[in-house]
Each structure stands twice: as C-alpha cells, then as structure tokens.
Specification:
PGBDSf; PGBD-like_sf; signal; 2 strands; Peptidoglycan-binding protein; single chain; two-stranded antiparallel ribbon; 5 helices; 129 residues; mainly alpha
Length: 129
C-alpha cells in the first residue's frame, strides 16, 4: 500500500476543488480517474484553459523510454487511457498515447501525434474523463 504525503497547499487546493464540485480521482491507484490526481499533480501542475474550461494538468512531460517520468504520473496516464497500470512508459503506453492523439486531432489543441504527453495531451485526456 502506498502512503501519500500531502502539503498544506495541496490540501487547500483539493478542498477548493471538492467544494467547487470538480471530480477528483482517489489517491490510491486503480480507481477510475477524473480531472484530478493529487499524487501526480503534487509533482507540479499548471492550469490550462481551453474553450472556457480550466483544468490543472501535470507539468511532467512523459514519453516512451523517459527515465525521468514518475511512476505516479505514468500510472495516472495509463488509467486515463484505460490500459493496464504498471508505471512504465513502454510500447503499449506509447501506442495508446499515439492512438489517442490521432483520434483527437480534430480538437485543435490536442495535437500533434508525437507520443509525447505534454500539457496539450494531458488537457485532452483529462477533459474527456
């Protein structure tokens, strides 16, 4: 079982989002994610606003073979993509990211199809969940 260390600022932000009615993912792993994942966002986040909607997205950029991606954010990404969560950005995750990006090119702010999960892809993934 994982333990979560939460700062006072993160607790205030979490409480504010809960009061505002924003859906949140549970912190313990395999639950269905929504807009917020406190474990991943604790590593850093920024607000992204598109078409009048603002969502905090992770600042962590993920890509295939990236040794710097935290397992927490990769697991959150995998949950958003609906694939098995192992915390490793391997071939299956890479294929799922590219497929998601390709399917969402019509939404102009979601591209390009490069397999890199930066703010645009995070926003699109989180906005649809």
């Amino acid at each position: 079982m994982r333990r979560l260390r939460v700062s006072a600022g993160l607790l205030v932000a979490t409480a504010a989002m809960a009061v505002a009615g924003a859906p949140m993912a549970h912190a313990s792993g395999n639950e269905s994610p929504q807009y917020w994942n406190p474990i991943c966002l604790a590593h850093g986040s920024q607000n992204w606003t598109v078409d009048g909607g603002t969502i905090p997205v992770p600042t962590e950029q993920l890509q295939y073979g990236n040794p710097y991606g935290t397992a927490d954010c990769v697991e959150f990404l995998q949950a958003l993509l609906g694939i098995p969560e192992d915390g490793s950005f391997g071939p299956q995750t890479n294929a799922a990211v590219r497929s998601f990006q390709q399917a969402n090119l019509v939404r102009g702010y979601c591209g390009p199809v490069d397999g890199i999960v930066g703010p645009r892809t995070w926003f699109c993934l989180m906005a649809q969940n």
